[in-house]
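Reply to dn_fold:

You asked what the input looked like. This is it:
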Amino acid sequence: MWLGRCHGKGLRTAFRLDALHRQMKLLGEDSPVSKLQVKLEPGVNPSHLMNLFTYEKGYCFVYYLSQLCGDPQRFDDFLRAYVEKYKFTSVVAQDLLDSFLSFFPELKEQSVDCRAGLEFERWLNATGPPLAEPDLSQGSSLTRPVEALFQLWTAEPLDQAAASASAIDISKWRTFQTALFLDRLLDGSPLPQEVVMSLSKCYSSLLDSMNAEIRIRWLQIVVRNDYYPDLHRVRRFLESQMSRMYTIPLYEDLCTGALKSFALEVFYQTQGRLHPNLRRTIQQILSQGLGPSAEPSVEQASAGADSEVDADTPALLLGDEAPSSAISLRDVNVSA
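and this is what came back:
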């Protein structure tokens, strides 16, 4: 998989790099977690260090190394030798760099590690986007239909645009195309309520049958647009998902908007099934701005969902004081 992706230039890479730039826009180019080699400094949450920058900025660096080599087969040989040498051991970034320059002595003689603006040290320790990215033009044939459909849904008049959009069968799309389309809608949220209503009518049932990466994107659109008729889908998803990457983004969105009481209610019902670390993180999200005697409003939260809080449900246990400057990674779900 590594070898194939290092030379791939298709939709998958385009999608993930698009997500990286969206995350960069959210966090800012000077965010410490955007470094490839992050130091545990004040304000840096260790749980945020395995993120898009780790994988996608790291991918761009490895791709850059492959371009320096210029010979895909020889670079594959290097990767195999590196893995063989260090398998079952712990390594640091310098091990990779030393191995690379040792395997390609001609590149070491050319001082490729010190090229202005592309220094290896800068790759590892500078904040911001990758210093170089692969040419992704070959993936444009797959991204053009996504952009066209997004433009239809944001065009006016809505009735005419929705009719044209609904004629496009996204069930035949690749997973990454659907995810990219939903990401575009997420970026545009909040959307006009009539647009969300038409989107739900057109796609909600179909998306509900797809994998979790697709479903969470649609549910984030539901939450960010306060679309109550589909809240029961959010509830069902949170009741069935115990993974951090699928629960945290939704709880963060719920607590950012007008649906915090709904989030509290769902958490009451599911907290006993959550891993202690995940439960504590959600408690911190819920506790931000919550008064000591605040109680969720079941009446509002139940709009679009018929279940009620059981009297025997354990009380919400708020964790320690929530961090005052937590870094949100809720816009990024890229494992589709």
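The radius of gyration is 23 Å.
Hope that clears it up.
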